[in-house]
Amino acid sequence: MKGIILAGGAGSRLYPITQIITKQLQPIYDKPMIYYPLSLLMMMDIREILIISTPHDIPHFKNLLGTGNNLGINISYEIQQEPKGIAQAYIIGEQFINHDHSMMILGDNLFHGDFNNFRVAVNNQINNKQNIKAHVFAYPVTDPQRYGVVEFDKQSGKVLSIEEKPTNPKSNFAIPGLYIFDGTSCKRAKEITPSQRGELEITDLIKSYLNEGTLKAEVINRGMAWLDTGTPQSLLEASSYIAVLEQRQGLKVACLEEIALRNQFITIEQHQKNIAQIPTSYYKEYLMNILKEF
């Protein structure tokens, strides 16, 4: 299973702060936004990861994350010259995907809670359970008219319909920016006809699996937080949410070095080397305290 983070886009709703740097590098409390989607992929035990972003921002991502070797993962980078739709990621990343299964997350989506539903979907995808070739996730919302909406059989999870921002939605389940596709995703993306706005829509890629009956929806459990961080208000709310959690529990959310150590991607010795590279900070102090558990 390969991992992809699509971290492009103009971030126009966050103007003027995105004039300086892309929204996926803006802080969510004490860490750059990109840490949160990257941590989810790592917690799925995905160690080969591609980050797709703009020509301007790729150097910043490389400066922040490097090759990922210090985390026991392998990070590659590709440029999206201009935003031509989410599904374009599967054309840009064709060589990286190389006919493998892939999990893609949008760089401004933040999840926190019990990730068991995600793990179940990953395992089912890899093991080809029930001839399922693709998974989307279903998150209950009070205003489904604002989202892509999925209708599905509650017993089997088989998807019945997908609608983009419907006036009269058939369900109250929105599709977050997290997708799992099989090795045919790149070929399917190439066959998509651009929409009226000139983009390769992710909905059309999802529907290619729906039309052949190989698409399943995995319901996200109650208690899972899904935060979109595309506006100034939602950016502030996400930061406040993470701040409250970390201050109450004394545990960090999306701490990449901690995840790498606990998942045994790296040794204690490598963790110590990572600490040595970090300047004096609360973050370094937290990582040092983790060593007491080992």
Task: Characterize the structure shown.
With 294 residues, the protein is α/β, with parallel strands linked by helices. It has 2 domains: 2-254, Spore Coat Polysaccharide Biosynthesis Protein SpsA, Chain A; 255-294, no CATH class. Helices cover 32% and strands 21% of the residues. The protein contains 11 helices and 14 strands. It has helices at residues 35-43, 58-65, 89-92, 94-97, 116-126, 185-190, 202-210, 232-249, 256-262, 268-276, 282-290; strands spanning 2-6, 27-28, 31-32, 48-53, 74-79, 102-106, 109-112, 134-140, 148-152, 159-164, 173-174, 178-181, 215-219, 225-228. Strands 1, 4, 5, 6, 8, 11, 12 and 13 form an 8-stranded mixed β-sheet that branches. Strands 2-3 form a two-stranded antiparallel ribbon. Strand 2 (27-28) and strand 3 (31-32) form a beta hairpin. The longest helix is centred in the last third of the chain and has 18 residues, at 232-249. The radius of gyration is 19 Å and the shape is globular. The mean pLDDT is 95.
The CATH class of the largest domain: Alpha Beta
Helix coverage percent: 25-40%
Radius of gyration: 19 Å
Please provide the count of β strands: 14
Describe how the helices and strands are arranged.
Layout: E1 2-6, E2 27-28, E3 31-32, H1 35-43, E4 48-53, H2 58-65, E5 74-79, H3 89-92, H4 94-97, E6 102-106, E7 109-112, H5 116-126, E8 134-140, E9 148-152, E10 159-164, E11 173-174, E12 178-181, H6 185-190, H7 202-210, E13 215-219, E14 225-228, H8 232-249, H9 256-262, H10 268-276, H11 282-290
